[in-house]
Amino acid sequence: MLTRKQLELLEFIQKRVARDGVPPSFDEMKDALDLRSKSGIHRLITALEERGFIRRLAHRARAIEIVKLPDTMTKPGFAPRVIEGDRPAATPLNARPVETSHAMELPVMGQIAAGTPIEAISEVSHTVAVPGSMLSSRGHHYALEVKGDSMIEAGINDGDIVVIREQVTAENGDIVVALVEGYEATLKRFRRKGEMIALEAANPAYETRVLPSNQVKVQGRLVGLIRSY
User: Fold this and answer.
1) SS3 of 90, please?
2) Can you tell me the distance from the alpha carbon of 45 to that of 53, in angstroms, rounded to the nearest whole number?
3) What is the mean pLDDT of residues 179-191?
4) Which of 21, 145, 160, 185 is exposed most, by the fewest CB atoms within 10 A?
């Protein structure tokens, strides 16, 4: 599964190679994806290469070869699913009753980092049955699989499923899904300090990240957790 930014970059490279015969420069990629620095492009290029979609040729400038394309890029009308998507305002997103229990099925929107931020979630991987008591009658909900151990002292372990209520605001002390600089997602405790936002881990091995408020976008608040043994 590719993230939204990975898909956007792969499509941009494909179009430029088809038009010009050569891939775009890193500056052109950065501008096209509206990223703040070329380091983000380096991470995306590396991720695409590791997944086998592109190949970088050594000792040649701007030498990127497209090896394959995901099925989604060959289907008309493709629109990647992302955290901030365009879901209708009604009952919880994609939720439907489970006949054998008082529960709802929610989409699991991939993984969320409880550690070093990972790139933002792009599409539904599967669904999970969630007790109705975890869900508010107002707002949309979705689920994420936790990757990492930075929130273990808050009782959130690697491999847990967290239930998130979509919202764009948070109170100090809330555990939130935060989108950092538009393309990295993480699960952290939220603190506002003037014009800065602190994203606090619940593990002393991890440092608190303090960022300008315009670089942090709240995507939702933790409302429940599901653990399998």
Assistant:
1) coil
2) 10
3) 88
4) 21
